[in-house]
Design brief:
about 325 residues, two-stranded antiparallel sheet, 2 strands, membrane, transmembrane, transmembrane helix
């Protein structure tokens, strides 16, 4: 069965190509800054810029290519507003590619390696690993209702999407920060700091993976129709997915009960698991993504208060 093309509105297209990548990049900005300050006691602009630019590029490219039919539609219909949005999206991608190369040029070789290992898969998210069903291609040309060639991409490996996003955003962000700061600024002693590298990697990876599953809850109807093997589709239920996410967040809370920031983030995420469902407005899911952003802001506020109190005591 052929899916009928339904053009997006200019507002929706702008959200997909511009607003969404920029909003999610704020998460990388806060997480990389937070990791730098909480573990190494300093904020360096290079890992922050690398993480933010990589995020915008990966998400922006994925959405840009997904909207290829809309670009053709805009050109055919002469829609100047939509064409302008595509030009702005392209400018955003090229600008961040330049910023990424600039930051990498001033970083050690190990940073280049970490970018390739952890962020590389995000740039080939929709890359065709295998193409199969070739025998049906001729029939598809004769009968439009018959399926043609099918391709296996990274994001269509069952359950892989959430795991990969968790690893990229959790382990990958730390790897970039660590590759630049570890030699000059060794991690603070655990006796003076509630954060340590292992703890923040595990928590960040779990947090990012859980949000990826929440994003799949948001897209449940569409993914079910297309049979995209996301975790909600594999579980065949949004409710079961919510139970799974709740269990993971509670496990994280018990595992790091001594860290109030992780407890706060996990409980916050758990509330959103039950507050949002497949029928909730897409914009509200950004609240789920930014659970770590709120945690970073809370941590920053507490640190500022400590600094102010110590300054007053001088």
């Amino acid at each position: 069965m052929v899916t009928q093309f339904a053009p997006l509105t200019a507002t929706k297209l702008r959200d997909e190509l511009l607003t969404h990548p920029l909003m999610l990049s704020i998460g990388s900005l806060s997480l990389s800054t937070f990791m730098s300050r909480s573990i190494y006691g300093i904020v360096d602009w290079r890992p922050v810029l690398i993480c933010v630019a990589s995020d915008i590029l990966a998400i922006g490219m994925d959405h840009y290519f997904d909207q290829a039919p809309m670009l053709s539609y805009a050109l055919k219909t002469g829609d100047s507003e939509m064409a302008a949005i595509f030009r702005q999206a392209k400018a955003l991608l090229f600008t961040n590619a330049g910023l990424l190369l600039f930051a990498l040029a001033l970083s050690p070789p190990s940073t280049w390696l970490m970018v390739m290992i952890f962020f590389g898969p995000a740039f080939v998210w929709d890359f065709k690993l295998f193409v199969f069903g070739g025998k049906q291609q001729k029939k598809a040309e004769e009968n439009k209702d018959s399926p043609g060639k099918k391709a296996l991409t990274i994001k269509r490996i069952p359950g892989m999407k959430a795991i990969l996003i968790g690893v990229i955003r959790g382990c990958g962000t730390f790897a970039i920060v660590n590759s630049i700061l570890a030699r000059s600024f060794p991690a603070a002693s655990a006796s003076f700091n509630i954060w340590n590298p292992t703890q923040i990697i595990v928590w960040s990876t779990i947090n990012r993976a859980c949000h990826a599953v929440m994003a799949d809850v948001r897209d449940f109807h569409e993914d079910w129709e297309k049979q995209v093997p996301t975790i909600p589709v594999l579980l065949r239920s949004v409710f079961r997915t919510k139970m799974l996410l709740t269990g993971v967040h509670l496990l994280t809370t018990f595992l790091y009960y001594y860290n109030p920031y992780i407890v706060f983030a996990s409980l916050y995420a758990t509330v959103l698991v039950w507050a949002l469902d497949e029928n909730s407005p897409r914009g509200l899911y950004r609240l789920s993504f930014h659970s770590q952003t709120l945690t970073a802001l809370l941590y920053g506020a507490v640190e500022m208060m400590k600094w102010y109190n110590s300054y007053q005591a001088m």
